[in-house]
Design a protein that fits this description.
It is built from six helices and 16 strands. It is an alpha/beta fold. Strands 1, 2, 3, 4, 5, 6 and 15 form a seven-stranded mixed sheet that branches. A seven-stranded mixed sheet has the order 14-13-12-11-10-9-16. The longest helix is centred in the first third of the chain and has 17 residues, at 17-33. A hairpin with a 5-residue loop joins strand 5 and strand 6 (107-112). It is globular.
Length: 291
Amino acid sequence: MKTIRVALCQMKVTADKKLNLQTARNFAEQAVQSGAELIILPEIFNAPYQAALFEQYAEPIPGPSSLALADIARECQTAIVGGSIIERDAQGRLFNTSLVFDKNGVLLAKHRKVHLFDVNIPGKISFQESRTLSPGQNVTLFNLYGFKAAVLICYDIRFPEMARLAVLAGADLLIVPAAFNLTTGPLHWDLLMRSRAVDSQAYVLACSPARDEEASYQAWGHSVIVDPWGQIMAQADRDEEIIFGYLDPEAVRQVRTELPVLRQRRTDLYEIVAKDAGVVKERSADDEIPH
């Protein structure tokens, strides 16, 4: 299997959806010019990360943002994980949803954020996604360039059980569109991304928005690529930036062979299993993905 060149686009998000979509296109075009075969965008890349605004910016799938992502993938001839957007389904429910398109603009996977960000840290941050959003119900996997990938959106990364379910289903690449803040980011961002890489023995690609000091919710930034050994391969700072890295399937195989913790689990003593057989879903380009 060949290595693939990935690009994480740490873009600044504004209140103008059309401008955000154009910014995503500009970043993608720059990334492709530098050889990117897979592009990752941040969580809620098309709108401000404010619960009070989710209803205003929500859209169906297909809709303006999903169609723009498909166009970008097709025109740039590169796969794209479109960070996430606020999706409105046919029943009017809102979800924090990530869309994955192959290089032909075909919708390859759709993942809805499973763990909603409900926190109250006095004097620092209070946020409750569950006031407006509904939780997803699946661990979503898809095949891309010889890797089996799973998407975990932001708060999902704090739940090692979810990553482990993905890995037990074959995942060797965890893609994390995320918008940590100035309270959680400094201490937890690197720690969590490296921890999931180590205990999953998988690559972790975590893409944040760039920081906007005028926004009510300020993202930590510091998008990062972590290898299966837990080493940081590339990392952004706080401002707009594209970071690049090469993913090598052989690196995953080597780590899992030399340090075979996944095989050494004592499943006679403990086990992590999904409550329902349909929780872990593997997608392919031939699947009909419900809107």
